[in-house]
Design brief:
- The complex is a heterodimer of chains A (113) and B (116).
- Chain A is built from no helices and 11 strands.
- Chain A is mainly β and 113 residues long.
- In chain A, β9 and β10 form a beta hairpin.
- In chain B, β7 and β8 form a beta hairpin.
- Chain B is globular.
- Chain B is built from no helices and 11 strands.
- Chain B is mostly beta strands and 116 residues long.
- In chain B, the strands form 2 sheets. In chain B, strands 2, 4, 5, 9, 10 and 11 form a 6-stranded mixed sheet that branches. Chain B has a 5-stranded antiparallel sheet with strand order 1-3-8-7-6, with no helix packed on it.
- Classes of the chains: A mainly beta (113), B mainly beta (116).
Chain lengths: 113, 116
């Protein structure tokens, strides 16, 4: 158990819908990262937040957004869903902005039908 | 831009045999390098990482990797495979020296099968 908690574990939704994935980082970790794992694209970095502020963006679509709240939990919002958005979404956390081990949650499986 | 190439999407070894998973990277800055393992229906677990210092890095479960700058490689090895090592292994790179260690660029992964 990495200490990073993600909900929901599985989610099935229809095209065009919007979903929110939630992540609770390890206790005390200020950095939260989101990654997408799909069969065709592999593991891709989406976005990084540090203590509530966006720090870096990767291959995140404009239809996707994220935020980190004062209690340090984070949410990834996916809107106007397409079939190709079906993937495993990972949250990860680390204590500092850099230089510390990154711990991954078990992921949220999103299936768009 | 940084990138990672893992040679071989699937590697099969016999139990007790040497495990060698290959990883080559491209980076314009001194890299931080990582190996992660993913068991079925689970998240990613860090096996080992190289940041600075000793180029031979030892990790968990008997795995180790050697950073070779001249070859831009970071191959993962284990002297003797166990059945429990069957999983998918990912090599990753990130910017060092102030870059966020968590903005990882992953390879496509190598599935390791271990035959009894």
């Amino acid at each position: 158990d990495s200490g990073v908690t993600q909900t929901p574990k599985h989610l099935i939704t229809a095209t065009g819908q919007r979903v929110t994935l939630r992540c609770s980082p390890r206790s005390g970790d200020l950095s939260v990262y989101w990654y997408q794992q799909s069969l065709d694209q592999g593991l891709q970095f989406l976005i990084h937040y540090y203590n509530g502020e966006e720090r870096a963006k990767g291959n995140i679509l404009e239809r996707f957004s994220a935020q980190q709240f004062p209690d340090l939990h984070s949410e990834l919002n996916l809107s106007s869903l397409e079939l190709g958005d079906s993937a495993l979404y990972f949250c990860a956390s680390s204590a500092l902005e850099s230089g510390n081990t990154i711990y991954f949650g078990e992921g949220s499986w999103l299936t768009v039908v | 831009a940084q990138s990672v190439t893992q040679l071989g999407s699937h590697v099969s070894v016999s139990e007790g045999a040497l495990v060698l998973l290959r990883c080559n990277y491209s980076s314009s800055v001194p890299p931080y390098l990582f190996w992660y393992v993913q068991y079925p229906n689970q998240g990613l677990q860090l096996l080992l990482k190289y940041t600075t210092g000793a180029t031979l890095v030892k990790g968990i479960n008997g795995f180790e990797a050697e950073f070779k700058k001249s070859e831009t490689s970071f191959h993962l090895t284990k002297p003797s495979a166990h059945m429990s090592d069957a999983a998918e292994y990912f090599c990753a790179v990130s910017e060092g020296y102030g870059g966020s260690q968590g903005n990882l660029i992953f390879g496509k992964g190598t599935k390791l099968s271990v035959k009894p």
